[in-house]
């Protein structure tokens, strides 16, 4: 009886452990960025993108394209075409401090600071050269990179 109880208890622990391992999203590896600092700062803009801006589309499977290369001073628009809200923000989750200008709601100015509803968009002007990782604060497993030259 004692051996059966021990075996059942071990099986329950294994099943629960497997459940929690599979339930939790995988953590992103920390990133180290070496920014090239300029004197200008990023600006947020909620307007509709013009023809000379770059658009990243957010869908139910993530950001597309996941990597975008732009020139310093380019405004990138994050357009939500998913069925859920998105919150584009600088890496790392949850502090949003990789992009070096401060003043956003949690850390960097590269932060929408709210959920952007389906059909809406949010824009950010990249004034500092570097490789800037970003993620969806509401679904951190969705992420990408803006390369600013």
UniProtKB/TrEMBL annotation:
Species of provenance: Candidatus Nomurabacteria bacterium GW2011_GWA1_37_20
Gene3D superfamilies referenced in this protein's UniProt entry, alphabetically: Cupredoxins - blue copper proteins (2.60.40.420)
PANTHER family: BLL1555 PROTEIN
Name this protein carries in UniProt: Plastocyanin
Transcription listed as a keyword: no
Transmembrane regions: 6-22
Keywords on record: Membrane, Transmembrane, Transmembrane helix
Taxonomic superkingdom: Bacteria
Keyword Iron: no
SUPFAM superfamilies for the chain: Cupredoxins (SSF49503)
InterPro entries per record: Cupredoxin, ET_Amicyanin
